[in-house]
Amino acid sequence: MTPLALDPAGLLGEFYISFWIPTAVLTTALVIKLPSIIRLWRDPLLRAVGGLLLLACAVFVFCTPSTIAGVNRLTGVPNISAPWCYSLITAFCGSCLLLIITWRNGLSDRSAATRRATRWVITVYSGVIAALWTLFLLADAPEERVRDLDTYYATTPFMREEILLYLLAHAAACLITSRLVWNWVRGEGLDAWLRWGLELLGAGYVLNLVFDAAKLTAVTARWCGRDLDWLSTGLAPPVAALSAILIAVGFILPHAGQYLRDRWRVRLAHRELRPLYRLMRAASGDGVPFVLRATPELRLTRRETFIRDVLLPLARHIDTGLGRRSYDAALGLGHPPERARALAAAVSILDAVGAGARTPAPPEPATGPDTTGLLQEIGALSRALRRPDDIEAVRARATAPAKSVAAHE
Prior knowledge:
Distance between the termini: 109 Å
Domain DUF6545: 263-383
Protein name: DUF6545 domain-containing protein
InterPro entries: DUF6545, MAB_1171c-like
Keywords: Membrane, Transmembrane, Transmembrane helix
Organism: Streptomyces dangxiongensis
C-alpha cells in the first residue's frame, strides 16, 4: 500500500474558525464596555479600549471573504478591499500600542516619555496607512483575489511592498505589545482577574505573531519560486480568529471578574447579617420592607441601616460589666481577641434584648455606653450569633463568679 499524501491545507480546513465567531466575541466585549465608555467618555483609557474593540470588530467584518467581494463590487475597483483591510489592521495595531501605553503607565502619568511614545505611535502608524494607499494606487492588480491576495500578488511591484509593509507593521506592534504585556504579568501586586486577563492578552498577541510568521513565510516562498500558500490561506486565518477570541476574553475577564467578585461580596455581606437582622427584627417588632427591584447594594445598605437604627436605643440596656467579663471569659476559653470581642458583644446584645423586653422604658441616655465599636462591627457580631454554643459557653463562664458570690452571701 502506498502511503497517503498529506494535504496541509485540507487538514487545516478541518480546524477552520469562522470569522464571525471572533466578531461576535469582540462585539460582546464592546457591548459590555459601552455603558462605561459612554458614561465616562473623558476617560482616555476607556476610549482606547472602545476604539481597539471597535477596530478589531471592523477588521473581522471587512476581512471576511464575502465582505471583501462586496466592497470590491460596490466600489467597482478590483481589490480595493486590500488597502482598506490592511489599513484597519494597521490602525488596530496602533490602537493596541496606545492602549498598553495608557493602561500600563496609568492615567496620572503625563511624563515626556509617555507623550513622546504616544506621538511616535500615532505618527508611525498614520504614515504606514498613508503608504499603503499610495502603494496600492501605484500597483497593477487587476484580477480580484478574495482569499489569496497576499501570495498571488507577492511578486507584483508595489503590491509586494504593500503586503510586506502591513505584515511588518503588524508584527512589530504585536511583538512590542506582547513584550509589554508579559513584562506586566511578571510584576507584583496584580489582581488575580487582571493577571488572568493579561495572560490571555499575551497569548493572543503571541498567536498574532504566529499569524505574521505564516503569512511572511508564504510570501517569501513565492519570492523563491515555491508554493506554500496553505500557510497564508489555511493556517493564518484560524490563528487570527483564535487570537482575536483570546484578546477579547482578555479584555472582558478583568472587568467581568471584578463585577462578579463585588456582587458576590455584597451578597455574602447581606447573608452574614441575617442572624443579627433577625434578632433586631424580633427586638423591634419591625423589619425592612421587601422591594422587588432593589439592587443587592441597596438591600445591603438598608439592612445595615435597620440594624444600626435598632441597636442605638437597644444599647442603653447593655451591661458593660457583663461585656468585660464576657470578653475575659472568651479569652479564657482560647478564642483570639477579635473573636472574643464579637462573642462578648453577642452576649451583651442578647442580654440587652432580654432586658429591653422586661423593662420597655429605657434608662437615661446619659448613662448609655459607647456604641461606636459595636456599630462598626455588626458583621463580626452577626457571625458570632451563628454559634450559639460558643455564646452559651462564654455566658456561663462570665456569669459563674457572680452566681457563686450570690450563693455564698
